[in-house]
Design goal:
It is a single chain. This protein has 165 residues and is of the alpha/beta class. It has one domain: Rossmann fold (3-Layer(aba) Sandwich), CATH 3.40.50. It has seven helices and six strands; from the N terminus they run αβαβαβαβαβαβα. Strands 1-6-5-2-3-4 form a six-stranded parallel β-sheet, sandwiched between helices. Helix 4 links the parallel strand 3 and strand 4. Bound molecules: magnesium ion. Magnesium ion binds next to loops.
Amino acid sequence: MKFLSWFQPDQTAGSIYDIPLEDLWNRGYHNIILDIDNTITPWNQYHVNPRLDHWLRRTEKTGFRICLLSNSKQQKVQQFAAELGVIAAPGRGKPCVRAFQSALSALESRSCDTLVIGDQILTDILGGNWTGLYTILVDPMDPREFIGTKFNRWIERLLVGRKPT
Ligand SMILES: [Mg+2]
């Protein structure tokens, strides 16, 4: 059914560290739109850690271009991107297609060669699918979440039967 397919990721992984990036590179995906909260860092803890830094450098070494896309405050997002040494999209407001298009513009990429990686079906996966991206859902890193996200989790369970982690 078309409606439900909007909420289905193309791939799932336990965490960013479990995604077979070389394989995806070989399949023609060369750009990554990356969520922040609970995807690369526990919710609202914008710290660079060695494991994340290593993953980013390895991913870039493979050839990928990376752009952060978050619904958090733009100033925080831009500052964190600078600390991580990657770019961040100027737009926000996932799942709106416009937000994803701002990331595609920042990457100078097209939807057909771009992945989105995120922990939320109702923002990252839904918007990614609407934009025509290859969508990868990861398990959230931290059970503590923004109240709006808790509501989204409830809808995720209702709609697509995603289990709480
Ligand atoms: Mg998130």
